[in-house]
Sequence to fold (175 residues):
Amino acid sequence: MARIPYFDMNQASPAIKDLVSSRPPLNIYRMVAHGGPTAEGFLALGTALLRKSELNPQLRELVILRVGALCGAAYEVFQHRRVATHEGVSSEKIEAVLSRTDTEPDSEIFTRLEMDALRYTDAVVRQVKAPVELFRALEDSLSHKQLVEITTLIGFYMLVSRFLENFEVDIESPV
Fold:
């Protein structure tokens, strides 16, 4: 059960209403809306990362799932497991990213870029600064813009995970 009541979206600012109008009615939006202007920034950054990024959507979802798993954010994992499936990520890859948080996922099922991105994700989440060799490995495959996007993606979903866990946002009941 959420630690504070969900925000009444009928009371949301026009900007927040606009930012969530094309999204499903998820509890995370009803909780973050309490933030007013900070909610607007949160939602705008999330939109940029999910809808305007140059990252491959499957790679993006593997990274998001890995962050959610490493942070112990059940809501995040639940929601993005569905998104990852929709984006064509195999169930084998999804389970590998989620099941082995104490060590890196099984490298045999991932491409080199996916493994580099997952190792980088692990390092950023666990150590803050990834070792130079992990950064350089990604730099060999991604543009500078994509390097910024993947690092921002990791940081944003660390924020999302901490937000969800601290407010104990409930997973929505099936419709």
Notes: The radius of gyration is 16 Å. The chain has a mean pLDDT of 95. The CA atoms of residues 124 and 151 lie 8 Å apart. The chain has two domains: 12-51, 57-167.
